[in-house]
Each structure stands twice: as C-alpha cells, then as structure tokens.
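Request: Mind sharing a record?
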Amino acid sequence: MSHTHHHSHTHSHPQSFNLAFAIAVILNFGFTICQFFYAFKASSMSLMADAAHNLGDVFGLLLAWGANWLLTRPARKRYSYGYKRTTILAALTNALILVATVALIAFESIEKLLQPNLINAKIVIFVALIGIVINGSTALLFMKGAHDDLNIKGAFIHLLGDALISIGVVIAACITYFTHWLWIDPVMGLLIVLIILWGTWGLLRDSVRLILDAIPHHINVTGIENFLQSFNGVKAVHDLHIWGLSTKEIALTAHLVMPDNYLKDEDYKKINAVLKKEFRVDHATIQVEKGSDDYPCERSEIC
C-alpha cells in the first residue's frame, strides 16, 4: 500500500480589525463610565443594566481583539497551527458573557416590574440616544467581517445588541415621561432580553460546535465528498474529517482509495484550489491508498 501525503499551504491573511477594535473599546468604555454616572443620577435601573451590559461588552471586545491579533501570529514548533483556536475560545466566551448579561437584565426588569420607581426620563433619553449613535456606528465597523469570521460576528452582535437596548430604553423612557406608566420600562427590558437571546443563540451554538471540532454549518460535506470521488481512478473516499482551525479557517483530511492510479502534483494543486474556492477549505491533507486486501486501512472501517 502506498501512502502519499500532501498538504495545502494556502494561508489566508485575515483582514485587520485592530483599528475597529481600538475605536470600539475606547468609545464604549468611555460611554459606559458616563452611563453609570447618569444612571445613579436618574435613579434608572434600566440605564444601570444597560451600562452593566456595555461593560460586559467592552470586556468581550477586548477578548475578541486579542484573539483576532493572535490569528495573525506565526506558527511555532509546539503550536503548529499558531494560535488560531483562541478565536473560537473568544467567540464562546463572548456568547457566554451575552447570556450572563441577559440574565442580569431579566432579573433587574422583573424586580423593577414588581417594585416600580420614578426615573428622570429626560436624562435617560439623552444618554440612551448617545448610546445608539456610539454603538450603532461602532457596530458598522465590524459588519463586513461578521459574515466570514465568528469572532468578528460576536463583536458585531455585541455592539448591535447594545444599540437595540439603547433604542428600547429611549422608547420606554419616552412613554414613561408622557404617561407615567412605570411598568413600561421593565417590560421593554424583558423584550430586549428576548432580542439578545435570539441573536446570541446562533453564536453560542456555532462556537460550541467549533470547539468540539464539528463540521462548520456552512460546509457542504456531500459536495466535497462528491468532488473528491470525481477524480479519475478514485474508487472510494473515507476517513473524511472537516473542522475549524479558527473562526475563519477550515481544515480537512481524507483518504482516497486509488487501486490503479495516483495523484500527480497538478492534481493536488487542483484539489486544493477547488476546495479553497468552492468549499472554503484552507488546509487540506490527502492520503492516497491502493486499497490492498493484504494491507487494509484500519480507518476505513471506523470512518
């Protein structure tokens, strides 16, 4: 049985979001301090919860920023793929921070619903409007990368969620100001909780799947298998594994059974190019076997 190993060496250089992270962290941290101050001044628990959420998001942004930087670091002897998987850890941590924040907002909203208190609606409206501008504009900085990178998507959802919360706070404060219905504010808080949960669930699910080496949801496994089997001389494909090296890069290994043929360098080049372009696989390792009965591949029975 002959074994031929081939590795794809197409390395994608992630788009730098360092400036976007710097702007988002500085603006949001400064705004969060102001929120805490005016939340005390206005006696507004909704604004206080929003400030706590923003503070959690600043921490999440710092995690995502650090992971995004580590994504660009070169591989080392012990860490042969570099530090790419830290982006998955950051995405998972961001999702958990969002879930914890949602729990805090839900608790505060229920408590305020049971024990309503007067708030200075004018201050709340003014501060929340500023929050909409800051969070909305910084979220736009990450919109492009949110489609391709789960870590950037986490940052985008954080900031977009903050903007939605601020909109909810403004609406609730306006209604309270004109009607004096104190129950409006906590009800709006609970609605915001549902919005955040809806946005967070996908991020939490995808990051857990990646950390467990599950096949990323956007990968067409059947298409990849059919493509590999389409090569002249390939009788079977087994031991096919696809997983995320990071929130952005995908790796693949596969065994091809070729009793009467073999893959030339140009075939490997074509395989790597198609896997990259059509299926978004960045690192491919292909093993070719004759499929001999005397020396069968043990993995063929398992995978």
